[in-house]
Write a structure and sequence with these properties.
With 349 residues, the chain is an alpha+beta fold. The chain has helices at 3-25, 290-300, 307-313, 328-338, and strands at residues 31-40, 50-51, 55-63, 67-78, 81-83, 89-90, 99-107, 114-123, 139-148, 152-157, 174-178, 187-188, 193-195, 200-206, 213-216, 221-223, 229-231, 243-246, 248-252, 260-265, 270-276. The structure holds calcium ion (2 copies). One calcium ion is lined by residues 314, 316-317, 325-327, 330.
Length: 349
């Protein structure tokens, strides 16, 4: 038994103890309203379809007007999704340290074609001064990520038929309500009406893999033209840190002029290559040294530089796709750089 599941077992035992008392004490008719939202992992809206391999963020919200008690929350989803390990965020309903939470990332809801996760929240009634909160606006209780793994029209939902009621005492889906904020008082968990309007989200997953999209960050620039280049990376930095990708992966052979950044699709096929340009590193060894100065000065005096080396030597160029002219200022800047001053990582801004 995993540590997580042991904790879950302990919490569930506490839940059961609560429920035995509450069945006898209350016949409450409070209503608990639940919603599920599914977005991109950065919170932006999903497109009409998502490609396999993409991840989505599932956010479960509770909206009630009562003092919240013990909560049990099974979230069922199509087996076209897989839970992404380590992404769960259980909000501490009663505040830090006053909520005992457990999360089973491999819960079996017994529904064909589905997987499920199960989150439990129990007030730590031993904590002095802890008050049960009133939820009067939609409040996030749970979030986690799922990865789309196969083509499907896939639902993510709270299963209404798993609701705990007086006639379904084994139901896993419940939300306790208390008469007061005192978490040591009995709570009702079985007489509620659960409103799950908006508690089913449907996502269309397509096998047509979306094209990889490489973008720069922290100054990194992606130039796509007749020749593809990436630049804006400081000398000595890790080029991987200056780019990010959607719908694929990338590798960089080195942080050096002439090195190759290769983009792959989610399926692993090579999609595009870019040549790295580090301004001032003309010979492509990843540092700026006397050799770069000599090459640049020679180019000024008539020898030829081409491609990434020419671009890297043109420290004062106007644009990457313009004409690159090597002049005195270029090799003076390179000389100054290896003598200790800094060199521009991007002359075009
Ligand atoms: Ca060099
Ligand atoms: Ca120049």
């Amino acid at each position: 038994m995993s540590k997580t599941k042991k904790i879950l077992s302990i919490v569930l035992a506490v839940v059961m103890a609560f429920s035995v008392f509450s069945i006898c004490a209350f016949a409450d008719t409070d209503t608990a309203t639940w919603t599920i939202e599914v977005t991109n992992t950065d919170g932006t809206p999903l497109g009409a379809t998502i490609p396999t391999g993409n991840k989505v963020l599932v956010t479960v919200k509770l909206q009630t007007n009562f003092y919240v008690g013990t909560v049990g929350l099974p979230v069922v989803f199509s087996d076209a999704f897989e839970y992404v390990d380590g992404t769960v965020n259980q909000v501490e309903i009663y505040g830090a340290g006053a909520t005992r939470t457990a999360f089973n990332d491999d819960f079996n809801a017994g529904i064909s074609g589905t997987k499920a996760v199960y989150a439990v929240y129990v007030p730590n009634s031993g904590a002095a001064g802890v008050a049960s909160p009133i939820y009067s606006t939609a409040t996030t209780v749970l979030s986690f990520q799922l990865e789309a793994v196969s083509e499907a029209t896939a639902d993510i939902y709270l299963p209404a038929d798993m609701q705990k009621t007086d006639t379904n005492l084994g139901g896993r889906f419940y939300c306790g309500s208390r008469a007061t904020s005192d978490v040591t008082t009995d709570e009702n968990m079985t007489g509620q009406t659960f409103v799950t309007t908006g508690a089913t989200a449907t996502v269309v997953i397509s096998n047509a893999a979306a094209d990889p999209i490489l973008t720069g960050k922290d100054g990194g620039v992606v130039y796509t033209g007749t020749d593809n280049y990436v630049y804006g990376i400081p000398v000595g930095a890790d080029a991987n840190d200056y780019f990010e990708i959607q719908n694929g992966t990338f590798t960089v052979s080195a942080t050096a002029t002439g090195a190759t950044l290769t983009v792959y699709t989610t399926g692993g096929a090579e999609y595009a290559t870019y040549t790295v340009v580090i301004f001032g590193d003309v010979d492509g060894d990843g540092i700026i040294s006397m050799d770069d100065y000599i090459l640049t000065k020679a180019a000024f005096q008539g020898s030829a530089l081409t491609g990434a080396a020419l671009i890297a030597a043109d420290i004062n160029g106007a644009s990457i796709d313009g004409t690159h002219t090597i002049d005195m200022d270029d090799y003076i800047a390179i000389k100054a750089a290896f003598q200790g001053s800094s060199i521009t990582v991007n002359p075009y801004i």
